[in-house]
């Protein structure tokens, strides 16, 4: 089966998607200005709906200047246009950032006390909440119950980031970076707000491992982590609880994910095996080094005076994909591998990948033809997705985020046969 060359993102370009940016009254409201700028500069039609408390932090002139629209703050303003109904009805996406504990509570209980809460009641489009509050408020059972209620209804509630809060406090409750909220919101728009991974726990690995020769040198590969991050972000946008195991990746943490950073293949193996315990799906997009030196020099290896090169003895690393494929920790767990192939005298790219799929024992294998260094570090990708059941999906060249959506489409087809946690 082949995918259509027109991606959902391309279809969105035919008109300006209407986005409602709700801003609640927290100190992180100033970050929403950056989020608004990203939406408007990328061609979205944005209506800002701040609460009265939000205007105490950032005034209406700022929102009006950045959005190019007058700001409505009350249900009785421009009453003939019925803003408390029309704004939500016409939206393609609603993003509330920051979403305070109060806003989450009102949304969960269906209260309609101001314009933003009315918009949330009338919206029939995807809704993304980006919470920001002190750790104690986020962890309170009432807040957690409200978050669970919103998620059960198909809303996307991003996990807050950890870091500096107001004053001297640090902990979980920080608003994720605007750039990452924006990327997640774009992913939600791209697939129409499909929340088919709500209640699912998934693990994604990304990047490339390094095997050290001495304190400054290592054996590695060219994996940038871009594809793995796109896959993780897409899963979060569909409502999954995501653990991202990142090997030597310099990209910023995607919004709403648990990120585990590793360096070597052994560390990657331990982190993935641990995170995969009871997970519904594991996507091994990382590129582990196949070999490592039998020993690591404690001091930098020096050049020999006679110009000779040192001999480095290698040993094989553990096969992580084969291990998690053959020792699954949950019935129905879907395991996805990646194959970067070039083809050689023993077979074509697809022939080698088909043999690898059978050998590894995974359910799906995403095959990249990397002849000439293609794919690595690029913003675009094309692939063939092979299934252990004989499936074959050709994905035309496009953004790595588009390939990520196709991968989750294929995973979801298999997860549909299994109940969520």
Automatic annotation (TrEMBL):
Stretches for region Phosphopantothenoylcysteine decarboxylase: 1-201
Cofactor(s) listed: Mg(2+); FMN
GO BP: coenzyme A biosynthetic process; pantothenate catabolic process
Catalytic activity: N-[(R)-4-phosphopantothenoyl]-L-cysteine + H(+) = (R)-4'-phosphopantetheine + CO2; (R)-4'-phosphopantothenate + L-cysteine + CTP = N-[(R)-4-phosphopantothenoyl]-L-cysteine + CMP + diphosphate + H(+)
GO MF entries: FMN binding; metal ion binding; phosphopantothenate--cysteine ligase activity; phosphopantothenoylcysteine decarboxylase activity
Cellular compartments per GO CC: phosphopantothenoylcysteine decarboxylase complex
Residues annotated for CTP binding in this entry: 290, 300, 318-321, 338, 356, 360
E.C. number(s) listed in UniProt: 4.1.1.36, 6.3.2.5
Region called Phosphopantothenate--cysteine ligase, residue ranges: 202-421
Residue stretches making up the DNA/pantothenate metabolism flavoprotein C-terminal domain: 197-412
Pathway listed: Cofactor biosynthesis; coenzyme A biosynthesis; CoA from (R)-pantothenate: step 2/5; Cofactor biosynthesis; coenzyme A biosynthesis; CoA from (R)-pantothenate: step 3/5
Transmembrane segments: none
Annotated InterPro entries: CoaB-like_sf, CoaBC, DNA/pantothenate-metab_flavo_C, Flavin_trans-like, Flavoprotein
Keywords assigned by UniProt, alphabetized: Decarboxylase, Flavoprotein, FMN, Ligase, Lyase, Magnesium, Metal-binding, Multifunctional enzyme
Domain Flavoprotein: 18-184
Manner of cofactor binding, per the entry note: Binds 1 FMN per subunit.
Pfam families attached to this UniProt entry: DFP, Flavoprotein
HAMAP family, per the entry: CoaBC (MF_02225)
Function: Catalyzes two steps in the biosynthesis of coenzyme A. In the first step cysteine is conjugated to 4'-phosphopantothenate to form 4-phosphopantothenoylcysteine, in the latter compound is decarboxylated to form 4'-phosphopantotheine. Catalyzes two sequential steps in the biosynthesis of coenzyme A. In the first step cysteine is conjugated to 4'-phosphopantothenate to form 4-phosphopantothenoylcysteine. In the second step the latter compound is decarboxylated to form 4'-phosphopantotheine.
Family stated for the protein in its record: In the N-terminal section; belongs to the HFCD (homo-oligomeric flavin containing Cys decarboxylase) superfamily.
Protein's name according to its UniProt entry: Coenzyme A biosynthesis bifunctional protein CoaBC
Taxonomic source organism: Nocardioides luteus
Taxonomic path: Bacteria, Bacillati, Actinomycetota, Actinomycetes, Propionibacteriales
Gene designation: coaBC
